[in-house]
Amino acid sequence: MEYQSKIVLVGNPNCGKSSLFNILTKLKQKITNVPGTTIENKTGTVTLGSRKIELIDTPGTYSFNPKSLDEKEAIKVFFQDPPPDTILYIADASNLKRNLFYFSQLAQQGTPMILALNMMDIADFKGFEIDVERLEKELGIRIFKINARTGEGTQALKSALFEDQFVPHYAFGSENDHTHESHFDSIAKLLNKTTTIKTKRELISSKIDAYATHPIIGYFLFLVVLLCIFQSVFTLASYPMDWIENGFGILGESLAEFLPAGWLKKLIINGLVAGIAGVVVFVPQIAILFFFMSLLEDTGYMARVSFIMDKMLRGLGLSGKSVVPLLSGAACAIPAIMSTRNMENWKDRLITIMVTPLMSCSARLPVYTLLISMAIPNTPVLGIISLQALVMLAMYVLGTVAALLAALVFKWFIRYNIPSYFIMELPVYHAPRWGNIWMNCWQKSKSFVTEAGKIILIISIFLWFFASYGPKPNETFSLQEAPKLEQSYAGYFGKAIEPAITPIGFNWKIGIALITSFAAREVFVGTMSTIYSVGDEENFNQLRQKMNADLDDLGQPIYTLAVILSLMVFYAFAMQCMSTLAVVYKETKSWKWPFIQFVYMTLLAYLGSWVVFNAFS
Amino acid sequence: MRLSDLPLGNIARISSIEDSPYKEKLQEMGCIPGVLVKPIMKAPFGDPIAYELEEYTLSMRRNEAYSIHVNPLDSLFNS
Questions:
Q1: Taking each helix axis from N to C terminus, what angle separates A578-588 and A453-468, rounded to the nearest 10 degrees?
Q2: B18 vs chain A: nearest CA distance in angstroms?
Q3: Considering only CB atoms, which chain B residues are within 8 Å of A128?
Q4: CATH number assigned to the domain covering B3-78
Q5: What is the domain count for chain A?
Q6: ipTM of the modeled complex
Q7: What is the pLDDT of residues A340-383, one digit of tens each?
């Protein structure tokens, strides 16, 4: 495919770049109302008839001197080989002065530019009038008024991309003076000539903010929002999760009839299909949680949450910008850790990365669900909530408190002298852009399936092998033959670590599950099903009953309250997710941090379990 | 006067910004001598503070606001 030219789309955060990119390329990607949500450059193709242009979308940037990782990424496109032919600069027309600062820096590069003025509706509301013809003459480039929400004006812009472009000739600053002051001075002069302000009306935003940032109502509102989200995640996600589980069950059964017997059949059914099912079953929860997160970000509410939480989080070595990663961590730590890229301060960012995996992610949910149903009676408390739901909530609180306390500890240990700051735009509230929210959801779920999915799948296959074969040759075990599991490789591993886990109340069977769970937590339930030979067609209740009926050598139940609580605490704290460690390595560019994370979380889990086990037994 | 001391709702003109690791960030966000600012709301515990700056809302911590010197527009009414 031959591209006519290469165009980069740049502008300040939250000015509508990604919306415009989506319209121009018809290729969807994430756009939200938190400044700085495009974290990587993305490439798409603009097509007009048979002609094609390569369009690169960049993370929003305030200047040519990047402050954070995502901004550094944005600047990189200008140093590509070949360099971009044209810069398509998009500016928020309702806030033109600041939006033109980065423009003024780029205008000196000698690259042809096009200017797109977005959010004209808000500019109109604020009473701004922009003389586009005059502005075109002053700058010497083509300018288009667009509305990236509705697509208005984007057709004209699109065809213009295929025509000749011009280098801006307006002199920003002076020959020897390119300070911020001189550039803003030139911009002010330019705008004096080309814009007029008629009336000034108050936006609805300030009225909402009176509640959203209120010292009491603000936090209360946030708490209510959180509870509503988690309630919906639990109730809504259970239906699609059932369908997925049943669907894969049917698939496994039909494959069982269809495939010829042999090790390949076992590998496909018990390794591959079970592995894929284990990944896909989490997608509904992750998608629903990210739907709500995107909704809050897109409307502008999340920026207010950062604003009201900053002071508290600062004391713990975090910042208001840690809110989004921490909350995303309740779905999956992988996209959560990737969303720290817009944090300018290395220390804030590192601490956020280090503690995010302590937030109870959706992979812990099936583990909690199984264990709670084994030990906690479903009795109502205060007539409304069940004791089981209360314990579940307590596990989330436990994870959050642990994350915050761990942050406090890291704050003392990590040496970094550059002070942290919180200089952030509070965007105007607006109605949700459903298309964008849906796409964000899809992107995050995709990153979970591709990032975590690969590793979970590979580990599931290994697990199947180690549980099916043993050191004694000529003997293979079926996954449904539990007594023989003891003689498989997995059984030997479990026995080998038993002395280490006896102090926290675990036997070798749990040991096997712990080992397999170091790949991914949710493998616990599958491993337990294997150990207690619960077939695919049987359900959770049977596993629960079999586990509860399991007795030790003295005839006492193995799964006492103490053991179960100890297990739950272990799963809340332990670093049992290889995909997360891989992402932490990628984001910190060092094995040191994933290593420290693994050690501290596992130690915390061991100590926590030891305390709980001894307190309850 | 420092921006962090400007009471809510009062308008002032930025006169200078002290050197700091975040000076450049403040400048590129539009905090430039001559620009008008108005504190419009404070987060609980009085920090950070949101300012109306030109045509948008910028939030910053008290610390950052402390590094910005301002001249209140109407010192008669603001005192």
A1: 140
A2: 14
A3: 55
A4: 2.30.30.90
A5: 3
A6: 0.93
A7: 988 989 999 999 999 999 999 888 888 898 899 888 888 887 77
